[in-house]
Design a protein that fits this description.
- The protein has about 300 residues and is α+β, with helices and mostly antiparallel strands.
- Helix content is about 20%, strand content about 30%.
- The radius of gyration is 22 Å and the shape is elongated.
Length: about 300
């Protein structure tokens, strides 16, 4: 179990502890319920209390958050860590690495790599990805180390993707076609009237040699969302053969989760980080633009 501590500010004097945790700290009903059921799950100034206890400025609150141990076997794999503390792990996911093992392929996944990394750090082997990236999509992947961080971050993360599409155009726009499974397929998606509402904002950066580099931000998180929306407008991601792209210049979809901003679940600080662009995308960008990608920040 992970112990999480906060100090009560003057503005929350005489409030109930559960109100402070739910409204001020974003503790979900489920996480609070789990803490109530643990021995010493909720402490006020070091003493077990009910969630209805009244607070005073300067009081010290501690709650326990679950760390569900993963059963995925550890495997020593390359893992580029961009940020880490007691609550979070941010990695730069490489291409060709799925999120989880799958039937017949019980190795080589991010979950295997994280299990090995945490084991060798002497930490519990947990796997709480805040969101997913496709196997061949690279970039910033944020993982929580306990259940409170995972539930909190679900609503406090903003990501910007960067990619290179086939075709040349300028400006910015929004794609809002609903997305669902392509009829007769179990993996491939398409834009269809009866699909799930999906919104992708895009802004071009530079174009040349039949390609355009863009930034993407999402209002929804559908499977393959950017890939489907770019394909539907006739400008598929370079290398994305599943959605109409070709591999003349890159051997996987040219998509990278490049920028992430989140509110830290415990400190409340706003943190912004950028995942370095991998060599294959950097080379493609240099070819179309004659320069290297510049930092977002």
């Amino acid at each position: 179990m992970k112990a999480i501590c906060w100090t009560v500010p003057e503005s929350w004097a005489n409030a109930q502890l559960k109100t402070f945790l739910r409204k001020e700290k974003g503790v979900s009903a489920q996480v609070l319920s789990q803490a109530k059921q643990m021995d010493g799950g909720i402490l006020l100034n070091g003493t077990p209390v009910f969630a209805t206890a009244l607070l005073h400025p300067g009081d010290q609150i501690q709650i326990l958050s679950q760390e569900k141990i993963s059963e995925i076997p550890p495997e020593k794999l390359p893992l580029e860590v961009l940020f880490e503390d007691d609550h979070l792990l941010l990695v730069n996911k490489p291409s060709g690495m799925p999120m989880y093992p799958c039937p017949g392929h019980d190795s080589g996944s991010l979950a295997n790599a994280v299990a090995w990394y945490l084991d060798h750090q002497g930490e519990p082997s947990v796997f709480y990805p805040v969101y997913r990236l496709d196997k061949d999509t690279t970039g910033a992947l944020l993982l929580a180390k306990h259940s409170f961080a995972a539930s909190f971050l679900g609503n406090h993360v903003r990501k910007e993707y960067w990619g290179i599409c086939q075709g040349e155009w300028c400006g910015e726009g929004t794609e809002s076609g609903s997305i669902g499974l392509l009829p007769g397929h179990t993996v491939q998606r398409c834009v269809r009237e009866d699909g799930d509402p999906s919104v992708t904002h895009w802004k071009t950066e530079i174009c040349g040699k039949g390609h355009t580099a863009l930034w993407f931000s999402l209002e929804t998180g559908r499977t393959h969302q950017i890939r489907v929306h770019m394909s539907a407008r006739g400008t598929p991601l370079a290398g994305d053969t599943l959605y109409g792209g070709n591999r003349e210049h890159i051997c996987r979809q040219a998509l990278h989760c490049r920028f992430i901003q989140f509110i830290h679940p415990v400190s409340g600080a706003v943190q912004s980080m950028e995942a370095p662009v991998p060599p294959d995308l950097k080379a493609l960008y240099a070819w179309i633009s004659g320069q290297n990608p510049q930092s977002r920040r």
